[in-house]
Write a structure and sequence with these properties.
single chain, Jelly Rolls, 6-stranded antiparallel sheet, 47 strands
Length: 662
């Protein structure tokens, strides 16, 4: 490590002798929209770059390289600027070399992703283990920034009259003598500080990007040439006209990063970042204020609107929507000063039980609105208007999602949340369950809640929740690649104002099978059952229970056979290893069904049939022979629907689902 730092000191020794200006280091990450390790690494890297004082020490730009391949979508962060990106990373382009660590062979061009450069140098020069971004630390950032610079940079942006271009005035000042080893170039890139997609532009599932390069001026290849020799006090001022490309997602997120690079040794001597200038007129939808859990059919929302422009806003129109259905528009008048916010109480509306959304859009802003992408806001909530009697018994057998009286919250509106699947069921006794897709969800920290029906547990002195689950953790990686998907069960008795955790497992502790890197599909032997006594809900008439998934980009989680009832009450039993098995036929049936039991010994058994509400429909004790026993189940009086047929012996229980069609 000391040898690496000595090498750096020799490279820029001529700078440090007379340098006067603190450095803002530049971190270039080569990442890709089709690169699975990139999606896993970037959340940790972004959190590091934004933590503590690191934003004052280092600015990041992200090159969306086609490694291992380019996105096939015509519109992607790579496809919209591929010529410049190709030049910056490839062996035929700028000339960065891949080595990763000091002991690796040198290869021309950036040949792996994710990979990084600090001030144009290998990250390990500044103390990192290698060039992989997972090895970046605050210490590495501080070391890179500790070398002072012979230059200072300032940049002043001004909008064009049509808000389609920005003129940047750049001033470079020398604080020490400097002679470059090659061409000295000022390079300017346009980034968007945040870009969020509803659908991933590539194949790795990554939908949230920070500081991607969107364009360079006049180009990354040419830059703006500077003199090769500088003396203390020398300066250079120039302007660059930056026409914004049509593919910019949000004008309010644009920023410019300028940096001085010596092409002889690739050193970046100084960098600077400035956000795009504020818009003259810009109304911004900031928040919807509705409780996440609402225990009433009547809802009065509040909304927050900010003035993100330079001019006062005196009027605007608000178009509200409930579940994407338009409500009555509202015209607001007043005086909202630049930088100020206002909270407005909207008209009351009613809603049925379950998951819902409320959104609003701002139009007709006084003076016009120069930026429309921030004019809308959406909020998801769950309505719990009535508490139902127990038991809660759910096997997710019906195609409707969510099941009746259940609800789920997906606050970020992402594609990966709780869903019903038909390829895995508890202990292999069905093909249905609910699943949370940690495997494809690259939004680390994403939290999604699955609500059981609100339950009136009056008279239930010993409430117990049981459920079957299956989960395969991902192997632990390095740095940011530590996968700790979490499952929690939380309960509330005050309509979700406060929650108490009664179950919490994550990572390897949540696993029911060994870790794997492939997408997990739960087989019969992969399940386990959790039974939780919840004394805090005893005799409570307003019990709420939720499953909470917190994403860390790991693997698939399955849940089945959820039961909330009095301890010892009839419910779907845990399906355990049992020397007895059975089949049902015909299934579906319109009348009588046959039960064919296979047993390794003679024994007594009990056959129980429950409907989907957990109500006892049929109960009979039978004698089993060693070998095959044929029994008949008279279902001619059963209503059409799905039933749980449970066979219990002294060695365990097993279950089948029977469909009755009349």
């Amino acid at each position: 490590m000391k040898k690496n730092l000595l090498t750096l000191s020799l490279i820029i020794a001529g700078i440090n002798l007379l340098a006067q200006t603190p450095r803002l280091s530049l971190y270039e990450e080569f990442t890709g929209e089709n690169c699975p390790p990139c999606a896993a690494t970037n959340p940790g890297l972004d959190a590091l770059l934004q933590s503590g004082t690191n934003p004052n020490k280092m600015v990041a730009i992200k090159w969306m390289v086609p490694i291992p391949s380019a996105p096939t979508n015509t519109w992607s962060l790579y496809q919209t600027d591929q010529a410049e990106i190709n030049w910056r990373y490839s062996a035929a382009g700028y000339g960065y070399q891949s080595q990763d660590t000091p002991t690796n062979s040198i290869i021309s061009g950036i040949n792996s992703a994710p990979s990084g450069r600090c001030d144009g140098q290998h990250s390990w020069v500044f103390g990192a283990v290698g060039d992989h971004p997972a090895y970046m630390t605050s210490s590495v950032i501080a070391t890179a920034q500790s070398y002072t610079s012979p230059f200072s940079i300032s940049m002043t942006p001004v909008w064009s009259p049509t808000y389609t271009a920005i003129t940047l005035t750049v001033n470079i000042q020398a604080s020490a003598n400097y002679t470059s080893t090659g061409s000295l170039i000022f390079r300017l890139v346009l980034i968007e500080k945040e870009v969020h997609f509803a659908t991933a532009p590539g194949s790795n599932g990554e939908k949230n990007f920070y500081h991607p390069v969107r364009m360079s001026y006049p180009s990354i290849q040419l830059g703006t040439p500077m003199a090769s020799g500088w003396i203390t006090g020398q300066s250079q001022t120039f302007t660059i006209n930056c026409v914004l490309p049509s593919y910019i997602v949000q004008k309010g997120e644009i920023a410019f990063v300028g940096f001085i690079q010596d092409d002889g040794n690739k050193n970046v001597l100084q960098s600077f970042m400035v956000s795009g200038p504020a818009l003259a007129n810009d109304a911004k939808a900031t928040a919807v204020n509705i409780p996440t859990t609402v225990c009433s059919n009547s809802i009065i929302p509040q909304i927050t609107i900010d003035n993100a422009g330079n001019n006062s806003i005196t009027s605007l129109t608000i178009a509200p929507y409930k579940d994407a259905i338009a409500l009555t528009p509202v015209t607001w008048t007043g005086n909202l000063a630049p930088g100020a916010a206002t909270i407005l109480t909207m008209s009351q509306f009613t809603s049925t039980g379950g998951a819902h959304s409320y959104s609003f859009n701002i139009t007709n802003v006084s003076g016009g609105d120069m930026y429309f992408a921030n004019n809308s806001k959406k909020f998801s909530f769950v309505v719990e208007p009535a508490y139902l009697p127990p038991p809660v018994i759910e096997g997710f057998v019906f195609g409707t999602w969510p099941p009746a009286n259940w609800g789920f919250l997906n606050p970020d509106g992402g594609a990966y949340t709780w869903s019903r699947v038909s390829n895995a069921g508890g202990y292999g006794n069905s093909n249905e369950s609910t699943r949370y897709d940690f495997y494809n969800n690259s939004v680390t920290g994403d939290v999604d809640d699955l609500y059981l029906p609100p339950t009136d547990l009056s008279g239930v002195s010993n409430p117990v929740l049981s459920f079957d689950y299956a989960y395969a953790p991902c192997p632990t990686g390095v740095g940011a690649n530590v996968y700790n998907d979490k499952l929690e069960v939380l309960v509330s008795t005050d309509c979700g104002v406060s929650w108490t955790t009664v179950f919490s497992k994550s990572g390897a502790n949540l696993g029911t099978v060994p870790a794997t890197t492939v997408s997990f599909v739960a087989a019969a032997a992969n399940w386990t059952t959790s039974t939780i006594a919840i004394p805090s809900l005893s005799n409570n008439p307003t019990a709420l229970v939720i499953f909470r998934a917190t994403n860390d980009y790991g693997n698939m989680l399955y849940i089945d056979n959820v039961n909330l009832n009095q301890a010892g009450a009839v419910a779907i039993a845990k399906i355990s290893a049992n020397p007895v098995s059975f089949d049902l036929y015909p299934n579906p049936t319109n009348g009588e069904a046959n039960i064919i039991v296979s047993s390794s010994r003679s024994s007594a058994a009990k056959i129980t049939v429950l409907n989907t509400l957990g109500q006892l429909i049929y109960n009979k004790t039978v004698a089993l022979n060693e070998g095959i026993t044929k029994l008949q189940l008279d279902s001619k009086d059963f209503s059409s629907g799905i039933y749980h047929v449970i066979l219990e012996t002294d060695k365990g229980s097993c279950l089948k689902k029977l469909t009755v069609n009349k």
